[in-house]
Amino acid sequence: MNKIKIFGFMLLLAAVGLMAGCKKQPTPTATKPVLTADIPEILANGTEKATFTVTYNGVDVTSQATITNTATGEALTGNTFSTTTPGTYTFAASYNNETSETVTIEALPTSDLLLAVDKPSIINNGEDVATFTVTYQGNDVTAQAVIVNMTSADRWDAGVNIFSSQSSGTYEFRASYDGKSSNSVTVTVTIEPQNPLTLHASTPRINANGADEVVFTVLYDGEDVTSQATITNTTSAETVTGNTFSSSVAALYQFEASYQASPADPTIVSDAITVACGDYDFYKNVLLFRFTGAWCQPCGQFSSTLKAALDAYPDRVIQMAIHTNAGGTDNLTSSQLGLFLLYFSHNSWPTLFFDFDRTDTGKGISPVNMSTQEVVSTIQGYQAKGAQAGIAMTSTMEGRTANVTVRVTPSQSGTYYLGVAVVEDGLAGTQNGVEGTYINNDTFRILDTEVTGNELGSLTANTEVSQQFSFDLSKYTDNCRIVAYVNMSDGNGGYTTTNAASCPINGSIDYRFEE
């Protein structure tokens, strides 16, 4: 915890409460229950249903609330709705003598349009895919049909029929064609099981002098099986003699281990790891802190610009969305928000801070008028500074506890600081400035270090250090990730991020290098 006088801290929080909501603090409104539905439309076949949830001050009160069809005044039995009559249905919830805003469900007429999927379950590695087929009266019309992911409100282009995801959960889909709507189908995304066999290198970087070497260790379910395993240099297709490697040829080398626990068991192959032999730079990710709020209309409008920028220039940004209720209600606001505001002072939303840079004004970047290309150019500017440290991580789940090991290797000697946090993806909600359901990704949840990072001390180049962390995720979904970032002092009382990385809560990431 930052050592700061409580009086100063309270003054800061008071100042935040007076900050302009997006620019000016709106007049607080009375607390009302919030009614949401899991899908915006159902097929009027009597079996498809919409499921409602009612929250009050962020607490689920569905079982105590009354959900009413506003046209008929009839209260639902339970919290689901189905019908055999097509039409538009509007509902509201009442709780604690307050009534929510209305939610509309479209009941679509049944038709001969059929949606099918080749498999009901995929794993959340972003590579396993489910493929949809749309038929009308027995004819394949997939190429002309439009498929909608109703869970995320994502409407695909005509002909797109493949789904993959890195977020676990159940997703519901429907197709439309020639004014007709299909049945709905679901695809469940499950967490990818972790490989029990791991290959570890004593350092990810060695000199290309034939003498400097890396030492490998092979673990099976945490047990050292190096002497029984086979280590292969997959770059050269050669088996490593013993468990060491050196070379006088500069290159990026990949290695994997294989192990058979017993003659009756299958041979298991580890995930590949990379060793840089020679002067290779670590892959540079830019860390982005985005201060936002569900109440903030410019935040919602900027989200489309940011998405377009990250789509145009992918795999270079590690983002943390810091929610705040300074200008209105935002149930995703963390109790640790104040820690970030001590370092990242700002007076408008949204505000961006790249790589801990507070800019000359100390107030970050207000992006509301930035174009997609301007966002991309800003990312490229920070990326061009390069990374002086690499990050590797392993996270395993034990019940609802994530046990995390973060490994850091600097390419230059110096003093470094490590920050570690949890973010969560796939959180459905509302966002001022965006119609319909809004999916919140990269949402900050837990910080287990100083905001600016815990000091790792004075480190020697190419020497790895590791630290362990545990996170209680009982309040969160499986769509969490671990974010780690490495900072350096900027010499002026601030910090600059030299690299950042993200890891699934039940997975691992290796060091990466620029090629």
From TrEMBL:
Residues 1-20 form the signal peptide. InterPro entries: Ig-like_fold (IPR013783), Omp28 (IPR021615), Thioredoxin-like_sf (IPR036249). It comes from the Bacteria. It holds the Pfam family Omp28. The keyword Signal applies. Coiled coil: none annotated. Gene3D superfamilies: Immunoglobulins. The keyword Signal applies. Keywords: Signal. This is Omp28-related outer membrane protein. The lineage of its organism: Bacteria, Pseudomonadati, Bacteroidota, Bacteroidia, Bacteroidales.
